[in-house]
Amino acid sequence: MIKKLVLKGKHPGPHLLVTAGVHGDEYEPMEACRRLYLQLQDEMELLHGKITLVPVVNHPAFAMASRTGPDGLDLARICPGRADGTISERIAHAVSELITSADYYIDMHNGGHLYNIYPFSGYVLHPDHNILMVQQNMARSFGLPIVWGTDPTLPGRTLSVARDANIPAIYIEIGGAGIYNESMTKLAVQGCKNVLANLNLLKIIENKKPVRYHVEDHRRESGFLQRLLPSPADGFFMPEVAFEEPVKKGQPIGLVQDALGQVKTPILADQDGIVFILRNSPSVHKGDSLGAILPATQREQIQSIYE
Ligand SMILES: [Zn+2]
User: Fold this and answer.
1) Cα angle 131, 4, 151; round to 5
2) Which of 29, 58, 170, 292 is least enclosed by beta carbons within 10 angstroms?
3) Distance 127 CA to ligand 1 centre (A)
4) Does residue 60 carry a pLDDT above 80?
5) 201 falls in which pLDDT band (50, 70, 90)?
6) Please, which residues bridge with residue 213 across strands?
7) 90: helix, coil or strand?
8) Cα of 21 to ligand 1 centre, how many Å?
9) Rounded to an integer, what distance in angstroms lies between the CA atom of residue 57 and that of residue 60?
10) Has residue 300 got a pLDDT over 80?
C-alpha cells in the first residue's frame, strides 16, 4: 500500500523512518526523500543501521494535486487509521504500522497550495523527559531557523502515533505555496543528514546553520496550524507583513476585504512574536487560518510559553 525505499548500512544500528507526502500537495519533501536515497547510496560505508524513506505516503492525494485524497479525509487527523476503512484510513493504518516499527521518525511537510511556511522543525512536548530531550536534539540538529515544541495531546497525527509508541519524532515544515522550490529540497536533504549524524546513523560532520528561535509553547492546541489567526470574514486576504518580521499583539498584519473593496477588516496580531506562516491564497472563508505568529521575542535560547 505504501511504496518505500530502504537502505541497510554496513554496520548495525537503529532504524530511522522518514516520510513525505502525508499531504498530496507538498512537493519538496517528496523529492528530498528520493534525493536522500541516491546520496546515501554513495555513503553506505558511513551508514549504521537502517533507513526507510517514503517519498509519497498519500499517493491518491498526490495524484489529485490535493492535500487530501478522494474521500476528503486529512491523513494527519485520522491516524492510526483502520485496516478496513476508506482509502485514507487504510493509508493511515499502514503508515502508523511503519512508524511503530521504527526507532526514530521524521515527517516532512510544507504549507501545500494555501500556505507558505518559514522553515521550522517541530516536536511535541513529550511527557517522558528522555524522549523530549532526543526530540529537542533532533529538531535542533535539522538546522532550520525555527524550532517549535508544542502541545503533546493533539490526536490523529503521525506524530501522535509516534508519541503513543514512545518513538522520538520530529516534523518539519518548509515553504509551500503550491510550487516546487529546489532550495527547500536541498534544505530538507541536508537537514535529514544532520539528524542522521546527530543520531550516529551516519558518520559525517553535521553541516547546519544555527537555530535562530526555539520556542516551547505549552498552551493547549499550540501547533494546531489550521486554528491560528482565523479570518473574521469571507473575502480577499492581503498580508502586510513579511516572514521573520517582529510584531506586537494588536498590530495590523493584513486585511480581508470584500469584492468591491468597500469593507476592509484589519487582521491584528494575536500575540507578540515573529511572523512565520502566511496564507498565500487570497481567497478566504470566515474561520480559515490566515497565518501564524511564533511567540518568539528572544533569539537562540529556548523560550517557554504557558497559558
Ligand atoms: Zn502537511
Assistant:
1) 30
2) 292
3) 24
4) yes
5) very high
6) 146
7) helix
8) 7
9) 9
10) no
Of 197, 124, 195, whose CA–CA distance to 162 is shortest? Answer: 124
CA–centroid distance, 168 to ligand 1, in Å, is: 19
Task: Give tens-digit pLDDT for 120-158.
Answer: 999 999 999 999 999 999 999 999 999 999 999 999 999
Select 228-295's CATH number: 2.160.10.10, 1.10.10.10, 2.40.50.100, 3.30.930.10.
2.40.50.100
Average pLDDT, whole number, for the chain? 95
**Got the DSSP string for 130-195?**
HHHHHHHHHHHHH--SEEEEE-TT--SSHHHHHHHTT--EEEEEEEETTS--HHHHHHHHHHHHHH
Cα(46) to centroid(ligand 1), Å: 31
- What's the 9 CA to ligand 1 centre distance in angstroms? 29
> From ligand 1's centre to the CA of 26, what distance in Å?
6
Query: How is residue 16 written as a grid cell?
Result: 530511522
Look at residue 269 and tell me whether its pLDDT is greater than 90: yes
**What does the alpha-carbon distance between residue 16 and residue 88 come to, in Å, rounded to a whole number?**
24
Pairwise pLDDT comparison (205 vs 186), residue with the higher score: 186
Q: Cα of 10 to ligand 1 centre, how many Å? A: 33
CATH homologous superfamily for the domain 5-211 = Zn peptidases (3.40.630.10)
In the chain, % of residues over pLDDT 70: 100
Cis previous bond, 266, omega within 30: no
Set of cell numbers at residue 261: 473593496
pLDDT of residue 209: 86
Contact 23, 113 (CB under 8 A): no
What's the CA gap between 66 and 51, in Å, rounded? 27
The domain spans of the chain are 5-211, 228-295
